[in-house]
Amino acid sequence: MQLRCGLEPRALAALTVVLVGAAVFAATHFWSARPEAVRAPDRVAEAAAVQVGGPGPADAQSPGSVPGPAVGPQAGTAPPGQIVVDVSGKVRRPGIQHLPAGSRVADALSAAGGVREGAEVTGLNRARVLTDGEQVAVGLPAAALPVGGAGTGGAAPGPAGPTAPVSLGTATVEQLETLPGVGPVLAQHIIDYRTEHGGYRSVDELREVDGIGDRRFADLRPLVRP
Q1: In a 10 Å sphere around its CB, with 0-12 CB exposed, 13-18 middle and 19+ buried, how is residue 173 labelled?
Q2: pLDDT given for residue 84 in this prediction
Q3: For labelling, which of 15, 29, 80, 97 has a CA lying 20 to 30 Å from the CA of 191?
Q4: Among residues 192, 185, 217, which one has the least CA distance to residue 116?
Q5: Furthest CA-CA distance within the chain
Q6: Contacts of 24 (CB under 8 A, 6+ apart)
Q7: Which of 108, 114, 88 has the alpha carbon at shortest distance from 216?
């Protein structure tokens, strides 16, 4: 090589070092870029199940199964051992009450905050055992009592007498409070609407009074007149 290329010994040694270094660099580069096998993580199905909702041991044994929705009590039904009653009329907190099975009318009145002062409860049997889904009406006129006598002892009433509906155009706050679910605040709203609009032209205008929704309007409609 020295005779053919005319290289000095020092230059030949430098060229040799460069070639050896290039060969080492190329070998290192190809070695580091070689493909490597990647091992999948263990128990992928269990990790996915825990992330979704943490099934129990029985569910973990069948990774292909899809957990269904939780089964609970149906909407609108009382849980076992409880009853649902509607306490309306002249009580402090009228509305739906959840009570233990075997509760009496006195328990429903207590859950509703008690009877309001001045309410007529002479015909109310407070010792009567309640049934699920019934209504307890307190201080309502005879024509307003629900069929089934929920407020008077459970006997179905006879034909209603000639009791006139409450007049929205002339009723006072006290007269309006005898209606189911109407307290002093709502009674005042009814009178304020009457004053502002010059009276009621139809019972349907009650829907526009603040505090009267569809359900309460359905209860009041047969008991009032314009």
Answers
A1: middle
A2: 92
A3: 97
A4: 185
A5: 140
A6: none
A7: 88
Q: How far apart are CA 215 and CA 96, in angstroms?
A: 13
Rounded Cα gap, residues 145 and 141, in angstroms: 7
> SS3 letters for 58-105?
HHHCCCCCCCCCCCCCCCCCCCCCEEEEEEEECECCCEEEEEECCCEH
Whether the model clears a pTM of 0.70, i.e. scores above it, the answer is no
Q: Which residue has the tokens 């526009």?
A: 208
How far apart are the C-alpha atoms of 223 and 171, rounded to whole Å?
12
- Distance, CA of 112 to CA of 92 (rounded, Å): 6
Contacts of 21 (CB under 8 A, 6+ apart): none
**Residue 222: phi, psi to the nearest 5?**
-75, -5
Q: Which residues are within 8 A (CB) of 201 and not within 5 positions of it... i.e. 6 or more apart?
A: 226
CA angle 41, 47, 50 (to 5 degrees): 175
Q: Tens of pLDDT along the chain (226 residues)?
A: 555 555 567 777 777 888 888 888 777 777 776 666 666 555 544 544 444 444 444 444 444 544 444 444 454 566 788 999 999 888 899 999 999 999 999 999 999 999 988 787 877 888 889 998 888 888 776 444 444 444 444 433 443 433 578 999 888 989 898 998 898 899 999 999 999 988 888 889 998 998 898 888 988 989 998 8
Place of tokens 């706050």: 173
Query: How far, CA to CA in Å, does 21 sit from each of 13, 18, 28, 30, 32?
Result: 12, 5, 11, 14, 17
